[in-house]
Write a structure and sequence with these properties.
By secondary structure, this protein is mainly alpha-helical. It has a single domain, classed as 434 Repressor (Amino-terminal Domain), CATH 1.10.260.40. Helix content is 69%, strand content 0%. It contains 5 helices and no strands. Helix 2 packs across helix 3. The termini are close together. 16% of the residues are buried.
Length: 62
């Protein structure tokens, strides 16, 4: 979900990580579901990518 939305927004991992305040390596691990994150960081990512509530709920159902 994160990778797809990041690409839709034409952002590199480095650009999104900078916007959110995390390392690009941490973002990379989040994109491949290798690492969990805090709700606070997830909220920042969702805001930065303008991900809809519906899309988040669909993702969480999986």
């Amino acid at each position: 979900m994160i990778r797809e939305n990041r690409k839709k927004n034409n952002l590199t991992q480095e650009e999104l990580a900078e916007k959110v305040g995390i390392s690009w390596r941490q973002l990379q691990r989040l994109e491949i579901d290798e690492e969990n994150t805090t709700v606070k960081t997830l909220k920042k990512i969702v805001r930065a990518l303008s991900i809809s509530d519906d899309e988040i709920l669909e993702y969480l159902k999986k």
